[in-house]
Amino acid sequence: MFKVYSRYGILIAVVLIVYFLLLKLVGLHQYPILSAVNGLIFTIGIYLALNTYKSQTNDFKFEEGFEVGLFSGGIASLLFTIFMAIYMYQIDNEFAIGILKKWGLEYDLGTLMLLLTILIMGFVTTLVLTFSFMQLLKKSWNTKDGNRNTL
């Protein structure tokens, strides 16, 4: 299980970083609306992680699948936030200020607020997607075998 979620968590983070750097290359990294594609990247990555884990195990349990999804997205969120921290503090100091000005926020929290937002958005996206995919991938009790689990 560790191999699955660590591999896919790192893969999701790498794709997120490459996507951000491509936006930076084109000059579109200042538009936060384009981060909606991050949700699509998380969606594909978490779904692939869950499908891979499901194909590797004979007894696919909800709890274990949920753990794979949460840890895949959690690792990706942490790695992407670390990358963005390095980018905002070391490479482009004006990036965070430019986004905050576009949002109309005059708070003195600056870059830290953006990093916290990135981390929370990643975790929430992971939670919602994992829960949604587990509803699709879990074994149904609506079968003859599932009837034995009712009162």
Top keywords for this entry?
single chain; 151 residues; mainly alpha; 5 helices
What does this molecule look like?
This protein is mainly alpha-helical and 151 residues long. The protein contains 5 helices and no strands. The chain has one domain. It is elongated. 25% of the residues are buried. The model has no long low-confidence stretch (mean pLDDT 83).
A few lines on this structure:
This protein has 5 helices and no strands. The chain has 151 residues and is mainly alpha-helical. The mean pLDDT is 83.
> Uncertain spans, ≥5 residues at pLDDT below 50?
none
Figure out the total of helices: 5
Helical percent range? over 70%
What's the total count of β strands?
A: 0
Biggest sheet, open or closed, and with what strands and sense?
Answer: none
Oligomer: single chain
The SS-based structural class is mainly alpha
H and E order: HHHHH
- Measured on Cα atoms, how large is the radius of gyration? 19 Å
**Alpha-carbon distance between the termini?**
33 Å
Q: Note the beta-strand portion.
A: under 5%
Q: Based on CA inertia axes, which overall geometry fits?
A: elongated
Task: Determine the mean pLDDT.
Answer: 83
Tally of domains: 1
